[in-house]
Amino acid sequence: MEKILITGGKKLSGMVKISGSKNASLPILVATLLTDEDCVVKNVPHLQDVETILALLRILGKRISHHNKRIRISSTYRLDSEAPYELVKKMRASILVMGPLLGRLGRVRASLPGGCAIGARPINLHLRGFRKLGAKASFERGYVQLDAPRLHGANIYLDFPSVGATENLMMAATRARGRTVIENAASEPEIKDLANFLNKMGAKIKGAGTNIIEIEGVSVLSGTVHEVIPDRIETGTFMVAAAVTVGNVAIRGADPEHLEAVITKLREAGAKITVNNKEIKVTSGKNLRATDIETIPYPGFPTDMQAQWMVLMSLTKGTSIITETVFENRFLHVGELQRMGSNIQVKGNSAIVKGVPKLSGAPVMATDLRASAALILAALAAEGRTEIFGVHHLDRGYEDIEKKLKRLGARIKRVKE
Ligand code: UD1
Questions:
Q1: Cα–Cα distance measured from residue 263 to residue 256, given in angstroms and rounded to the nearest whole number
Q2: Contacts of 54 (CB under 8 A, 6+ apart)
Q3: Which of 37, 193, 341, 365 is the most buried (most CB within 10 A)?
C-alpha cells in the first residue's frame, strides 16, 4: 500500500503545466468504437482511469498503441458487445461504451455500475434516452442488455443535465436513422470536445456546449486525429493550491474560459488572478474572505471543485456556506478535514465552514478522487506532517501530481508501506 507524506507550510511558487482532460479523454477514447478506422488521440493524461478504459477497449476488440500522451486506437477482426463487471466496478465511466456499441452493433450488454462513495448515481436517464432511440432493455444478473436492430432519431428531454447521459446518447444518436434532439443536455466543455471529435469522424452534431444538442444520424463514421482539451479540474485544483498556501503560481496550458466560475469565486475571496491567453497566474495573500459557493452543472461552480474549495474556506476569516446540488453524498472529506482542525458542520446538502487560523497535519484517508485532492491541499497548508492513505483515488485523476507540486516547492513524497 502506498501513502503520500506532506510537510506543510511551504508557499507554492513557480510554473505548472496542465495535463489533458481526464473527463474529455474517457468519452473520446470510447467513441473510437464507432469506427473500424484508426483514430489518434493526443494529449491523453497518463492516469489509472485512462488505463481502465483502454483495458475495456482491448476486451471489446480494439488494439491500442501508446506513444507518450498520444494513443492510436485500431481495430482487430471483431468488436465485442459486452462491458464486464470487473471493469465497470472499477470505474463508472465504463458505461459510456453503451452508446457507441448500441449505435454500431445494435446491441450492448453492460454491467450495471451500482452506487459509489459519493452517491447512488443511477443510469435511469441513459436508459430512458436509449429507449426513446428505439432500444429494448432487459435486466439479468446485474447486467443490462439493450437491443435495437436500427436506432431511430428522437426528441429526448433529460430531467437533469447529466454529463454521462448526454455523452452516451449523443454517441448512440450519431448512428441513428434521422434527427435526435437532446434537450436540457449537459453543456460541459468535455461534451463539446467529444462532439468536436465525433464531427471530425463525420458525425453531424450541432449545439454541443449548449443545453440543446441536435444530431443528424449518419451511416458511417471514419478515423480521425484529435487533441483533447486541458483538464479544467486539475487547473482549478492548482489555482486553489496557490491560494491556500499564500503562494504565487503560473498555470500554463490551461483554458481559462472553462474556469470562469472558479476564477470569479477566487477573486471574490480576494485572490489576485491574471489571465493571459492560456496562462492563469494566481497570487494570494493571507486572510482571504469567506465566500459561499453552490455546485451547479456547467457553467456553474463544478462539483469536482467543491472539496478543494472547502479546504480554502477552512482557512479564511469568517463563515461560508458550501452547498452541493449535483451529488447527494459528496461531503465524505469533511470528517478528515475536521481531523486536521477544520470547523465544518454539515446540514443536509450544505456545509457551514467556520474559518480557523491554522490546520495541523494528521494521518487521513482519501475517500474519493476529488476528496483526495482536497486532503493534499489541506496538507500543503497545514502545520506539520500529514500522511494521506487511499492514494489510488488520486492516481485515477491527477497526472504526476507529486512531481508537479514538488517543482512548485512542496515537500511531498510517496512511500510504499
Ligand atoms: C461526470 C464526471 C464527474 C462529475 C460529474 C458532474 C466524467 C467521467 N465524470 O460524471 O467527474 O463529477 O459529471 O459534473 O465525466 N444522475 C441520475 N440518473 C442518471 C445519470 C445521472 O440521477 O441516469 C444523477 C447522478 O446520480 C448525479 C447527477 O445526476 O447526482 C450528475 O451525474 P452526471 O452528470 O451523470 O455525472 P457523471 O457523468 O457520472
A1: 8
A2: 29, 64, 71
A3: 193
DSSP 11: P
Can you tell me the distance from the alpha carbon of 215 to that of 166, in angstroms, rounded to the nearest whole number? 12
Q: What does the alpha-carbon distance between residue 333 and residue 338 come to, in Å, rounded to a whole number? A: 9
- For ligand 1, the distance from its centroid to the CA atom of residue 114, given in whole angstroms, is 13
* Pairing outcome for strands 293-294 and 319-323: parallel
pLDDT (tens digit, 9 = 90+) per residue, 334-386? 999 999 999 999 999 999 999 999 999 999 999 888 899 999 999 999 999 99
DSSP code at position 70:
E
Which helix (H) or strand (E) element contains residue 72? Answer: strand 70-75
Ordered strands of the 107-111 beta sheet: 82-83, 107-111, 143-147, 136-140
Task: Give phi and psi for 6, each to the nearest 5.
Answer: -130, 130
**67 alpha carbon to ligand 1 midpoint, in Å?**
31
The amino acid at residue 380 is L
Distance of CA 48 to the CA centre of its chain: 13
